[in-house]
Amino acid sequence: MNVIVKTAKSGDWETIQKLNNQVFINDQEHDNDLDMNWPFSPKGIKYYKDLASGKYGKCFIAYLDNQPVGYIALAIKDFGYRKSKYIEIENIGVNPQHRSKGIGKMLMDEAVGWAKEQKATKLYVSAYWGNERAIDFYKKNGFYESGVEMDKRL
């Protein structure tokens, strides 16, 4: 398996869009409030373009035999009431047919390296309560539970 992880460039925004759309498709079973059109909306497109160009956060793309198979999107997270400097993993995804092959770990390692370059002291990620596969992945990569997010329907 020949996997290479590269920093996204401006022209990679559509690749990120397609990879993130797969995350949306996967996540809809955990969140019926997801706007499934968002990846192709003007706001979504602006997000991908800003992410790919480096104007907003950092993005790494994993390629298997020159085909994009995964990505990780990162941003500085400001918890004004906390002492640590955080980097948030806004989203991460690996194509379903390429999961459990170490690609997610490679992306996570790149995230850790970039976070350290930013002088961050913690990585932050939010996972859906019922997404046990994602929670297990994060725990295997050194994350621990630090809070619970909650919603209330109005």
Task: Trace the largest sheet across and list its strands.
Answer: 1-2-3-4-5
> CATH architecture, please?
3-Layer(aba) Sandwich
Morphology call: globular
The residue fraction in helices comes out at 25-40%
Order of helices and strands: EHHEEEHEH
* Amount of beta strand: 15-25%
Based on CA atoms alone, the radius of gyration comes out at: 15 Å
How many helices? The count is 4
- Mean pLDDT figure: 94
In CATH's first tier, which class applies? Alpha Beta
Q: Please give the alpha-carbon distance between the first and last residues.
A: 49 Å
Structure, explained:
Keywords: Acyltransferase, Transferase. It comes from Candidatus Woesebacteria bacterium RIFCSPHIGHO2_01_FULL_40_22. One of its GO terms (molecular function) is acyltransferase activity, transferring groups other than amino-acyl groups. 33% of the residues lie in helices and 23% in strands. It is an alpha+beta fold and 154 residues long. The protein has a single domain (3-140), classed as Gcn5-related N-acetyltransferase (GNAT) (Aminopeptidase, 3-Layer(aba) Sandwich). Strands 1-2-3-4-5 form a five-stranded mixed beta sheet, sandwiched between helices. A hairpin with an 8-residue loop joins β3 (67-77) and β4 (86-94). α1 (13-27) crosses α2 (42-53). The model has no long low-confidence stretch (mean pLDDT 94).
